[in-house]
User: What shape does this take?
Amino acid sequence: MKDKLQQIIDKAESELNSITTKPELLNAKSRIIGKKSELNSLMKNIKDVAPEDRREFGQLINEAKDYLQQLIDSRTQIIDELIYNEQVASSRIDLTMPGRRTVQGGLHPLTQIWREVEDTFLSMGFEIADGFDVEDEFHNFDALNTPKDHPSRNLADTFYVEDNILLRTQTSTVQIRTMENYQPPIRIIAPGRCYRNDKMDASHSPVFHQVEALVVDENISFADLKDTLNIFVQTMFGQNIKSRIRPHFFPFTEPSAEIDISCVSCGGSGCRICKNSGWLEMGGAGMVDPAVLESVGIDSEKYTGYAFGLGIDRITMLKYNIPDMRILFENDLRFLKQYR
Amino acid sequence: MKISYKWLKDYVNLDVDPKILEDHLTFAGIEVEAIEHIGEDLKQFIVAEVLSAQKIEGSDHLQVCMVNDGGEEPVQVVCGAPNCRTGLKVAFAPVGSIIGGEFKIKKAKLKGYASHGMICSAKELGISEDHDGIMELDTKASIGQDLASYLDFNDIVYDVEITPNRPDLLGIIGVARDLSALYHKELHLPQAKEWNTYDDVNDSLKLEIQNQDKCSRYLATVIKNVEVKESPDWLKKRLIAVELRPINNIVDITNFILMETGHPIHAFDYDKLAGKKIIVRDAFENESFPALNGEVYKLSQDDLVIADGDKAIGLAGVMGGANSEITLNTQNIVIESACFNYATVRRTSQRHKLFSDSSYRFERGLSSETPVFTKDRAIDLILDLAGGQLQQGSLDVYPNPDLAKIEVELRPARVELLLGAHIPLVEIKSYLKALGLELITESSEKIKYKIPHFRGDLLREIDLIEEIVRLHGYNNIPVKTSPQGIMNHKHFRLERKIKDLMVTAGLYEVINLTLFDPDNLNKLRLSEDDFRRRLVELKNPQSNVLRAMRTTLITNLLNCTEYNINRGNKDVRIFELNKIILNNSDKTTEERKSLTALLSGNRFDNYWKDKSTKCDFYDVKGIVEDLFTEVNLTISYTPSQEKFYTENHSLDIICKKLKIGSFGQIDPKIAKSFNIDTVELKQDVYILDIDLTQILEIMDFSKRDFQEINKFPNVYRDISFNVNSDIKVSDIISTIEVVNKAVVKNVSLMDEYKGKNIPKGKRSLMFSLTLNSENKTLTDKFTEQLMQKVIQSLEKNYNIEMR
Assistant: This one.
């Protein structure tokens, strides 16, 4: 009897050791401990065993059955491990192949800078005002203290639509439009398109973009202008960039100034971009001329203000290191994709 | 904290409607969180008389009673209370009334007797703890009267939030004082009465403060031979209104004074004090203290206790001890009016997780001067309501009376500078006077005030300015505008959103000059009266190709496409959002924002795992659908009238009966006139052109309705059939939806197939239906029936063949 059981166990051991797949294992399981197994038929013989030996007989068979179950379980674990290793090995991939990019386009670099400019001023409590591209002479010149025969009307070559109607040469027109409709305090920027009769070249375009800032309130001073410019320049170009203003002439501001920033390329030591001066010209600024305030009916004794205008195209070219203005308007996808 | 309207009226003559007072309180900085109508519940109960009461056989306590509730017929009620008897006036709850907010009285049968209502105890009515039997009403009570008016329970209680800086508002008088200032009305404080006194208090009691840092003042008063009993109705009502439970007259009086003044006081049973002493001292480590709430606390050395000769009898400012509690047997009492350090009370309260109305107030910092008032008030009320003999004098330990004296200077000019509004000086002075501030000196620049002791929060000029503007009314300060509304936020957001959406859709933004060559318009086959012919032309153009303002962005995009294709970039997916400028008939110009997109070539950059596919009509249509979802507008389509699209490959977009744009395939001949050879390139050009200015006018960002998320699971069913190719998918979808609009939530096209195995002139379509009933889970049976109806309807309308 014990020999018989040992025989069954030995046979099962050698059979299990050669099994490597799940289906085979299931078959073997039914052969070893299933209903039709040798062990089971041995169990059926229990009625032939003498009653006093039955207990021991049953116990032996159960022990053998438990042991066989353990063998099968440990084989199952081995096979699971084999399957897992196989799975990992066969699913190796080439990790150097390119990943799937999301399908995305991109904003034009000008728009990206435009938004950055807007957001910077919005965070300083400015509102964004809008104006017309096609303007009248009053808003582009007369109200801006530039009467008909004033020499500065020649400063820019202006596109005319009618005798009195033109394409605005500066966003300063929005100053007038805003002050006509709102009383101080006024705190706006006006980004927009301007037109001057310049031939398209590396640094000129007949259509270009400016952002105008205008602040009118009680107690607004030249010092406020410098502060706002500093904050703006440092937000746009970094904490190390300085701004300075130097005397200049604009008919609609007094005192007037031109704005320079320290060269974003060399940091001020002098390079090709700043033509070795260490400074880059950014735009014009000044305290709003009392005549401008009076022309829109604002008490220039009570209120003062400052205004400045900056070139968005120029800021974009400086920030993105774009050498030629024409590239901005060619819309070459190879260019646009660089800045997506 | 709860504030009773009636109670407030004891101190200030309010003539505002309680509803308006709610607003005024909130805007004076006393935020009303809830408002409660006392007695509202009691209106359902009726004064009734027990006409007869007979024991029910087989029950040891039930009686069957006939009750007269003022109705035509007496009502039969079964009652279990032992004190229910013939002739008694009772509080009767008729069938349908609700007790305790949840228990609804119904017709019932007890021991075979029908019972039509209930006779209530005071506890059941929520007006006292008394549950010994049913409530016995006055014999003169008039039958049929509702209980609220019989008991005179009609008050309004405000649940207010008191900010931590205003402990003075933790009593009704404090709130009344603020209201008196707000309404410029006099504040009536109760005046102390004169009483006969008996033996010197020093003969009865000794008082010692060992820790003066933690107890800034302690006043002890002794009254002998008081009669402890139930409080009178007026007192109980006051307490019930603010959710305090009446106990006995002495305890009720201490609670009343706490609510009235915001300053807690306590009463000890004099006879339980060992050594007839009160010592304010630090607790011993692990000293045990049996509190009034039945718990015993192990104290720490940091706790401050009130002790007698041998034990702690009170946890200072937090809770009295059970060992010195006032009971119905108490004869002689000691009244404590004291002031404890707020931090000590707070730490003790936190340490033992023991929070009381008293600790809540002390931990916010109370005045050392108020105890004089509370002591006088206690004497008056106790002698009035409990009788007794006041011992002469009070024991008063008050080491640093000078700390309470604070003076603050106010510069009226500073008020105007800070508030940006001119408040007349008389008004300023009137507010401050009403708040209890005492004017000491006045010059044109400065007014000096002595701050009342109960306003420990007023230390600086700015504190006074806050009081002034609070009473003047925040709403009465004019608005100084800084942002003027110059900015068009809607326009700003719309433009950014749409540009972002186009980028997310895979398009690159291009920017072109506003000036263009109007000859291009001819290439687009625009009719002579097309609005895009309304040119604004330059008098002095730089060149012929830049001689007018552009009236469409389409020509620019086609030029960009040619430019890029010539440079080897055949997959062009671009958009521009910019101005077009039109000439009006009256010679003025009109500047509109236009969005134009162009797709041609591959839908996305080649990826090694995917087959590349070309952009088609449905790509553009998808962008249109995304875009109008983004701006939350419902649109419809009609065949496009534009001549530059290929026939039958374009749609106009209609919204609110207006054409707001179009999209479709550019006619290959027109593409060719822009040097884009679609045949040679094997790719078509698709355009989308939308008038953003119009969208801006009709859209509304804020309008987004919430839709309930369905609690029941969706059921999905697919249906697939052959149908004549000229039957439109949109028609099929609406036919399916109409079968059961309430349940068919969505029908989406899953597949279209033409060719092999499909008869010529037909196509195979597959739709997926999303079904959901908002109020139940759909059964298989219901779903099958619905699908059968769908099939029948499609067969009838479109002659479909199921697959």
Observations:
- The CA atoms of residues 48 and 101 of chain A lie 76 Å apart.
